[in-house]
Design brief:
Aspartate Aminotransferase, domain 1; 2 domains; Aspartate Aminotransferase, domain 2; eight-stranded mixed beta sheet; three-stranded antiparallel beta sheet; globular; alpha/beta
Length: about 375
């Protein structure tokens, strides 16, 4: 689904040089490159603080820990997303309240959130799924009205921009109280292992999250709060710093591939729905996800795999139906769209190295499948 090898080969000289520097310095944990990368990412995001950490799941956990929530407090999350978003809610003894998403954007909506709010609600975790922002302006209004924290899960939309009604533009992950991201290798900005980061404009939260990520200490061996061990390795920071300089270029390429797909598949609109770009957000296309109509997804997936075209289903089971959550979740209303999406979504290959001839081949095979439909 993602050609990481060729991406590496195109930047091999610079990557190898930066890795070798870390090896020469033997500066493996909290090395100077971690701080350099954090500062460069802070400037890119336009936020006040960036706290690197070990992975995107830790980022959400640390964010929730910093808010001082208590067991039994409710956290509103989408039912259609990756497990990590709700997993850490349950891990901390909180209650994941799962609400439906929008059928067009795949993202949580303000109206669905508001229906799920109770006197136990303490936070909302909007997930900017597949590369596009949730509609954050109304979500922030509801959060303010009900005094709820907002933690943005930005693992799939790093670099996306949200457009407010007054003309302001902010990066996804810098709108709520805290933003979280992942540097898993297949992400738009991915390292060669695990990695993550947390964003905030709140100095108190920044200090607390930095302490939590480092065993609850501000001064070595002086542990003021319960924390965890969640650090971004220096080698991964060095790799990410090289790739950060190319992130806008990478995302433009992904956008071009997505546009090419959508144009080439326009004649199949009776059978599939191509991704919709919302007016309030740019789209960085972490995934290019179709809705396959008429219960043909399995047949189409099998056909494409026989043609050596990889596809993925993100996600085949809604969180509300996962066994891990059966005794702790609360459903915040009907989950009609989420239940529909798990049976119809299918993602096509999209990455920084995909060539036009490969995209043409994929488009051709999709059209061929439906010729005899």
């Amino acid at each position: 689904m993602v050609d990481l090898r060729n991406q590496y080969l195109n930047i091999k000289e610079e990557i190898d040089k930066e890795i070798q520097k870390v090896l020469n310095d033997s500066d493996f944990i909290n090395g100077k490159k971690v701080n350099e990368f954090a500062n460069n990412l802070k400037n890119y995001m336009g936020c006040e603080f960036v706290i690197p950490c070990a992975n995107g799941t830790d980022a959400i956990q640390i964010a929730l820990m910093a808010l001082g929530l208590k067991p039994g407090d409710e956290v509103i999350v989408p039912a259609f997303t990756y497990v990590a978003t709700a997993e850490v809610v349950g891990l901390l003894g909180l209650v994941p309240v799962m609400v439906d998403v929008d059928i067009d954007s795949f993202c949580i909506t303000a109206s669905n959130i508001e229906k799920a709010i109770t006197n136990k609600s303490k936070a909302i975790v909007p997930v900017h799924l597949f590369g596009q922002c949730c509609d954050m302006e109304p979500i922030m209004k509801i959060a303010k009205k009900h005094r709820l924290f907002v933690i943005e899960d930005n693992a799939q939309a790093l670099g996306a921009k949200y457009k407010f009604s007054d003309g302001r533009i902010l990066r996804a992950g810098t709108i709520g109280d805290i933003g979280c991201t992942s540097f898993f290798p297949s992400k738009n900005l991915g390292c060669y292992g695990d990695g993550g980061a947390i964003f905030t404009n709140n100095p108190e939260l920044a200090t607390k999250m930095k302490m939590i990520a480092n065993h609850g200490q501000r001064i070595k061996y002086h542990h003021d709060i319960i924390g965890c061990n969640s650090r971004l390795d220096t080698i991964q920071a060095a790799i990410l710093d090289v790739k950060l300089k190319r992130l806008d270029e990478y995302e433009q390429h992904r956008y071009n591939v997505a546009s090419y797909y959508s144009k080439g598949l326009i004649g199949l609109n009776k059978y599939i729905v191509t991704p919709k770009e919302m007016k309030y957000s740019t789209h960085v296309y972490h995934q290019y996800t179709l809705l396959v109509l008429n219960n043909k997804r399995t047949e189409l997936k099998d056909f494409l795999e026989k043609k050596n075209i990889p596809t993925m289903i993100y996600y085949p089971v809604p969180l509300s139906k996962q066994k891990a959550f059966e005794n702790i979740i609360k459903e915040g209303g009907k989950l009609t769209n989420s239940l529909n999406l798990v049976n119809s979504v299918l993602s096509l290959p999209i990455d920084t190295e995909l060539k036009s001839e490969q995209a043409n081949y994929i488009i051709k095979q999709l059209n061929e499948f439906y010729i005899n439909y």
